[in-house]
Specification:
This protein has about 425 residues and is α+β, with helices and mostly antiparallel strands. It is built from 16 helices and eleven strands.
Length: about 425
């Protein structure tokens, strides 16, 4: 089902055939994200992503949209800290059209100065939208606090000043130096034939040549610290977190078990203790942010401002219990089945498989089979999970960020009281 071909110019094409569906998802990836940007150009990767929808030598922005809308397809893109991806989903017999549109955007965008000026204003509105979304903003503040001074810690979307300072030359140079064939990966999943996909993309990318040095994964220094930011909101939003693992660390499987047991669902310890027993939050969960050279792990919750201290105390207590007492065999079995079930459900989505192909290629240089992942999950032992908890939840690793109408002086937080 999985095949890989490298074109003569270095572009890698990975496909996964799913003959039981009638759709296909396709993505063109560039091995660059916000972590590879110079400080003065924060947000350049994200603005380039926007501009690839704004017109090519063959199509206007409207014609790009109409081409996919006209066949009931979806067209989108995202920029994260380490990659940029342009992707679409269509009915199988419209795959040639989707490849043509995506390739045209990727290779022939014109970067009209007037369109750049308009799109800069759009990005400013996007920045304001995030600033008005406290549940999004708190996560941004958490990463910036825990990785202060690093590119990986800076927001992918950039800052208003840096975005507005970007020029047409900046965007074109970014593409010339970062979108070279040797760092491009093309992925496709669904009711497709590998050879046909290769033939179409090979024709589209035949004139694309050159090479560039792939970005080196950043390994930022951990800078845990308390951060309390005032904002006029109904709830107070908090993230309490610590050092995590990179996507290349083999201990990511025990960490995923830990994540599931601590805050991965309605039966998790945090959900039961924070929401069900005490009614402190509607939403409480744990999460991982994993990159090629580093990672973060955290717990997020929204609560009434007077309840922040109690909520923090309960979360810290659960971290202590996990580190000191470990997990039960029943919890371990439940977590494993939950993870395997989630994996199986994700395999029913062509988009999910297409995304997994790209991330696996960049992160690991190969495709992980479902059987291999399930074997890794099954091999996790309770002792590994507890050992990881003891390491990660050490007092010196923990940081706390709180956003809302809070009185900082009423919140007790320092490393000596973080864990027992």
């Amino acid at each position: 089902m999985y095949r890989k071909t490298t074109l003569p110019n270095g572009v890698r094409i990975l496909t996964e055939s799913m003959t039981s569906v009638r759709s296909a998802s396709l993505g063109i990836w560039a091995d660059v994200g916000s972590a590879a940007e110079p400080a003065a150009q924060r947000g350049v990767s994200h603005l380039v992503e926007h501009m690839l929808f704004k017109g090519t030598q063959r199509r206007s922005a409207r014609e790009i949209a109409e081409a996919m809308d006209g066949v009931g397809g979806n067209l989108n893109a995202f920029t994260d800290k380490e990659t940029t991806c342009y992707y679409g989903k269509v009915i199988d017999h419209h795959v040639p059209l989707a490849i043509d549109v995506l390739s045209d955007m990727f290779l022939n965008s014109v970067f009209d100065p007037g369109e750049i000026a308009k799109e800069q204003k759009v990005v400013l509105e996007e920045i304001r939208m995030y600033d008005d979304s406290p549940d999004e903003l708190i996560h941004d503040l958490f990463v910036r606090t825990m990785w202060s001074g690093s590119s990986l810690g800076e927001p992918t979307i950039g800052y208003a000043e840096s975005v507005m300072a970007l020029t047409q030359d900046d965007l074109k140079k970014h593409m010339r130096t970062r979108y070279a064939p040797n760092t491009i990966v093309i992925t496709a999943a669904g009711n497709i034939e590998h050879d046909a996909i290769v033939e179409l993309f090979a024709a589209a990318f035949a004139g694309h040549d050159g090479s560039c040095e792939a970005p080196q994964p950043e390994v930022p220094q951990l800078t845990p610290a308390p951060l309390f930011k005032q904002k006029d909101t109904e709830q107070a939003y908090l993230v309490l977190g610590t050092r995590g693992l990179s996507v290349r660390d083999e201990r990511r499987y025990p960490l995923s078990v830990l994540d599931t047991i601590l805050g991965g669902g309605m039966s998790s310890r945090l959900f039961q203790e924070v929401r069900e027993k005490r009614g402190l939050a509607y939403s409480v969960y744990s999460f991982q942010q994993a990159y090629r050279g580093a990672g973060l792990f955290g717990v997020s919750a929204g609560t009434a401002p007077p309840s922040v201290q109690e909520c923090v105390d309960v979360i810290v207590e659960q971290l202590n219990v996990l580190a000191d007492c470990g997990i039960t065999e029943a919890e371990l079995r439940l977590a494993k089945e939950h993870m395997k079930g989630s994996l199986t459900l994700s395999l029913e989505s062509t988009a999910s498989r297409m995304m997994r192909l790209g991330r696996s290629e960049y992160n690991l240089g190969r495709e992980l089979t479902t059987e291999e992942i399930e074997e890794k999950i099954e091999a996790v032992e309770a002792e590994e999970v507890q050992a990881l908890a003891r390491e990660m939840f050490a007092p010196s690793n923990l940081g706390l960020c709180v956003l809302g109408p809070i009185d900082e002086s009423t919140i007790r937080w320092h490393s000596s009281t973080a864990v027992a």
